[in-house]
Design goal:
The complex is a heterodimer of chains A (about 400) and B (about 525). Chain A is α+β, with helices and mostly antiparallel strands. Helices cover about 60% and strands about 15% of the residues of chain A. Chain A has 12 helices and 7 strands. Chain A has a 5-stranded antiparallel sheet with strand order 4-3-7-6-5, with helices on both faces. In chain A, a hairpin with a 5-residue loop joins strand 5 and strand 6. In chain A, helix 4 packs antiparallel against helix 5 and helix 7 crosses helix 9. The N and C termini of chain A lie far apart (about 85 Å). Chain B has about 525 residues and is an alpha+beta fold. Chain B has a domain of about 25 residues. Chain B is built from 15 helices and 15 strands. In chain B, strands 7, 8, 9, 10, 11, 12, 13, 14 and 15 form a 9-stranded mixed sheet that branches. A two-stranded antiparallel ribbon of chain B has the order 1-2. The radius of gyration of chain B is 29 Å and the shape is globular. Chain B starts with 13 loop residues before the first strand and ends with a helix. Classes of the chains: A alpha+beta (about 400), B alpha+beta (about 525). At the A-B interface, helix 2 and helix 5 of A face helix 15 of B.
């Protein structure tokens, strides 16, 4: 069993203070409704109002957080796997079937959760909050506005409370269903760390890698300091998820969109991943394993690569800028490149690296350049015409 | 007791500490800050030392210095016992003790000589009374500060022969609570009979009975609130009036934001101060709740009128008046009230049973816009006096019977015990038709409560109204009151949803447990 860091500090603070406030609002609210007598009507009315304001402030912060962190995307509803998730709850769960969906940092909620939470956020909570405000501040004339009767407002407000209460019951129960163990979901919401099966963790790491590599690419494109960018990114992933297993990274890499390769010190491919095969337009691994890396370059570019490899074999790690590759069919592509030696004992046995495709960007830049050149030519021509006149 | 009122501060908008809490007061000068020494000593005036042959001469003496005051007096309803008031659908009508019917002693007409013991005049014994004669004014009943003045029984307002007019005349001053109370406490034939919140106990009571007039509080007098300008006293009673004017309000002194709490202040938008601050009435002495004239006339073995008392010493039967029910510490009934009232005039046909003597107008949806009232309706505490009284079963009007006379054979019910004759003579006296057929009909009369305000600690609590069972406002069903009201369908739906969710969870959990175990066993056996 491993642990992954899923819930951020604010998220947990928000969740639990919201739970507390809503619980308190529920108790005082139903006391005001006349369902029971606990704190006394006076206290209930007063503190229901204060708690309502506390909730509103919390909601404002939460909205800000959701938009600045992009977490709002977690709530975009999807029908993908919706049916499967539903069937799981009413069927598969009884047969110990695996979860149809996985919880990851970038996809915390299953499709049912997405729809439910979104419903709460954009329907139930706004309805309760807005009727609450009308209830509080417009039952007497205000700005010339006065409701003829409080009844519909009170009834809608109460209706929202019932729905919310039903949600809380189901929500609390389902936390015991979705975790690895009985209380692991609740523990995760308290500590931020979610216990997961190894398979799940792999998926999480892969997804995180994708994001890390995207960030690296953008940094390389931006021409940032290239040294150690990859290591730094990997460290970040490690830190973020709290995972320390190298194997997860290798697995993640083999799944990622970055091309991975490993070449023996005498220059023959030992390992490439699917992304690499795709970028070089091979059909299978067998076509390239055991072949020399000269195949990856045109003749004039090969010399440059050879020189770089020589450095790596002396122990250097190289982060290379954009290079031109030669694919299986002879076409060309562009990528950035990292190269680092792999030691067995004290000896360098082979070297490995990642390639991140930049062809699209390169071609776009070339187009831009061509246009600029044409523009410059045209301008020059015009200037000349002027002079002649 | 903590209640000693530290009323040393005064002036506009100051904070007053009644040792329980602080609240703002304006437009009031505390007694401690007043100079109450009279500017003149009436005993030194020669005109008051003369030998008075009758009470009229006292009045003449008063007016010899206080000229023009008679004209002021003659313009008041205390003098005229009527005033022109507008009633919706009936136009402007003269309303007052002179002509209005109630469900106590019914009306003064025909019995003036005894009823006018409470008139500020001398000699109103019948319709011939001269309302324009200045010397008919009784200055003393209001201005006597000696405590020795009293009007004689059945003497049409003239003083009792035992009164020393020189003593009284030389000790006049501002009216005190006693002066007002002699009529306003004893209306209806006994102490606290009518109002329920005006009681002889207010001359000497604790702050629990009256937080304004208690001896251990500011010990205010009537005219501290019922401010008077040119003998026109502020305030009115809805037994005798119908318009929303000349009223005395709590907010004049207590401001429109008397509470430290906004929620409480907001309540005043639709709830009168009195509603919470007069939680019960008739606190010191019982008040009359029911008067059944139909049982009157039962005489003892000797054919003499008799009386019977209840366990607390209150009359519950009088031959001349019928059956009564008294009650003390009564919880008021609550009504929407916008300051306007209707009146069942003697000329009005009876249309409802019980007959509404002076129904109060107002409703939750009445926010003043559609009424001549400028205020929206508020919830008021009201004493409702119920009873049965004679009516003309053919003409379908109430009857004004002649009740009192000194002698037998003049048709007065209290002497002759003949309803038919008393009705005939009474109606003839006011020029109204009487068919000769009479019966008794239930009537209801409304007395909005204003006096005997309780200390803040005794005022109503939230749950006196905001409660599902036994809410004080249970009878006001035209609006949604949180804590009292609910929608039975919504709550039913809510309960079904919640119980459904719980049952669903339990079934799901049990299935998980049972089926998983089965699954594991299967797996192991494989």
């Amino acid at each position: 069993m491993e642990r992954i860091y899923i819930y951020k500090v604010f998220e947990r603070f928000w969740h639990w203070s919201q739970a507390l406030i809503i619980g308190f609002l529920g108790i005082t609210g139903f006391e005001i409704h006349g369902s029971f007598s606990l704190f006394g009507f006076d206290f209930a009315v007063r503190w229901h109002t204060y708690a309502a304001w506390a909730l509103v402030i919390l909601i404002v912060f939460a909205i800000f957080w959701h938009f600045t962190t992009g977490e709002w995307r977690q709530y975009i509803p999807t029908t993908k796997m919706l049916k499967e998730q539903f069937m799981y709850y009413i069927g598969g769960i009884f047969n110990n079937a695996p979860h149809p969906t996985n919880k990851t940092v970038y996809n915390k909620f299953n499709p049912l959760q997405r729809i439910t939470y979104l419903g709460l956020k954009i329907l139930i909570i706004p309805v309760i909050v807005s009727t609450g405000f009308l209830y509080l501040y417009f039952q007497y004339p205000k700005f010339g506005i006065e409701f003829q009767t409080l009844e519909p407002i009170a009834l809608i407000h109460t209706f929202g409370a019932y729905i919310l209460l039903a949600f809380v019951i189901a929500h609390v129960y389902l936390t015991t269903v979705t975790g690895v163990k009985f209380l692991s979901s609740i523990k995760a919401m308290i500590t931020g760390w979610e216990e997961m099966e190894e398979e799940e963790i792999k998926i999480v790491v892969e997804e995180e890698m994708e994001v890390a590599l995207k960030i690296i690419r953008s940094k390389l494109d931006a021409g940032d300091d290239k040294s150690a960018i990859l290591d730094h990114a990997l460290e970040e992933v490690e830190e973020k998820l709290g995972v320390k297993r190298e194997t997860y990274f290798r697995d993640a890499i083999s799944q990622s969109s970055a091309g991975y390769f490993c070449i023996s010190k005498d220059g023959y491919y030992k390992e490439v991943n699917d992304a690499w095969i795709k970028l070089y337009k091979y059909d299978s691994r067998d076509e390239i394993l055991g072949k020399h890396y000269r195949l990856s370059r045109s003749e004039e570019d090969f010399k440059e690569l050879e020189a770089t490899v020589a450095k790596v074999l002396k122990g250097e790690t190289i982060n290379h800028g954009e290079v031109k590759r030669t694919c299986k069919d002879g076409s060309e592509g562009y990528h950035t490149l990292t190269l680092s030696p792999v030691y067995i004992g004290d000896e360098i046995d082979c070297f490995e690296g990642f390639i991140i495709d930049t062809t699209a960007r390169y071609l776009a830049e070339r187009e831009m350049m061509k246009k600029k050149l044409r523009l410059a030519e045209w301008q020059q021509k015009k200037d000349e015409e002027k002079e002649n006149n | 007791m903590l209640s000693v009122v530290a009323l040393v501060m005064a002036g506009s908008g100051e904070q007053v500490n009644d040792s329980v809490r602080t609240f703002p007061i304006e437009n009031y000068i505390f007694k401690a800050d007043r100079n109450t020494t009279p500017s003149v000593d009436h005993s030194k005036f020669e005109v008051l030392q003369q030998t008075f042959e009758n009470a009229h001469q006292v009045t003449e003496a008063c007016l010899s210095c206080h000229t023009e005051r008679d004209k002021e007096i003659m313009a008041t309803s205390h003098w005229k016992w009527e005033r022109d008031e507008f009633i919706e659908g009936k136009g402007i009508v003269p309303l007052g003790k002179k002509n209005i019917l109630n469900n106590f002693c019914i009306g003064v007409a025909g019995s003036e000589a005894t009823c006018t013991r409470c008139h500020i005049g001398y000699g109103w014994k019948d319709k011939s009374f001269d309302f324009s004669e200045s010397t008919n004014i009784d200055c003393l009943v209001c201005h006597d500060n000696s405590g020795t003045y009293k009007k004689g029984k059945g003497m049409a307002g003239l003083p009792d022969p035992s009164v020393n007019l020189n003593v009284v005349a030389q000790s006049v001053g501002q009216p005190g609570t006693e002066n007002c109370g002699v009529c306003h406490f004893w209306g209806g034939g006994g102490n606290n009979v009518k109002h329920g919140d005006l009681d002889v106990a207010m001359l000497d009571c604790s702050r629990e009975v009256d937080v304004h007039m208690g001896r251990d509080t500011e010990n205010m007098s009537c005219v501290d609130c019922h401010k008077t300008e040119k003998h026109q006293m502020a305030g009115k009673v809805y037994a005798l009036s119908s318009e929303n004017k000349d009223r005395v309000t709590c907010t004049e002194c207590h401001t429109k934001k008397p509470h430290l709490d906004k929620i409480l202040n907001d309540h005043n938008i639709r709830i009168a101060c009195q509603t919470c601050h007069i939680p019960v009435y008739a606190k010191a002495n019982a008040t009359k709740m029911w008067w059944d004239w139909s049982t009157a006339g039962r005489l003892d073995e000797d054919g003499k009128p008799m009386h019977e008392n209840d366990a607390y010493g209150n009359h519950n039967y009088l031959s001349i008046k019928g059956n009564f029910v008294y009650d003390d510490d009564v919880i008021p009934e609550y009504f929407w009230f916008n300051g306007l009232a209707n009146h069942q005039l003697i000329t009005d046909k009876i249309e409802t049973v019980p007959v509404q003597m002076n129904s109060l107008y107002g409703s939750y949806l009445d926010k003043g816009a559609s009424q001549s009232s400028t205020e929206q309706s508020k919830i008021w505490p009201v004493k409702v006096h119920r009873g049965k009284q004679p009516y003309d079963t053919i003409n379908m009007t109430l009857i004004q019977p002649k009740l009192w006379d000194k002698e037998q054979g003049k048709g007065a019910y209290w002497v002759d015990f003949d309803w038919d004759e008393a009705s005939r003579i009474g109606m003839e006296y006011i020029g109204q038709p009487y068919s000769g057929a009479f019966g008794f009909i239930e009537t209801e009369m409304y007395w909005p409560l204003n006096h005997q305000v309780s200390p803040a600690s005794e005022s109503l609590k939230c749950v006196d109204c905001h409660t599902r069972n036994n809410s004080r406002l249970a009878s006001l069903t035209d609006f949604y009151l949180p804590g009292r009201d609910r929608n039975i369908f919504l709550d039913g739906f809510g309960v079904i949803v919640i119980i459904g969710a719980i049952i669903g969870v339990i079934i799901h959990a049990m299935l998980r447990r049972y089926l998983r175990r089965k699954y594991f066993f299967q797996k192991e056996s494989n």
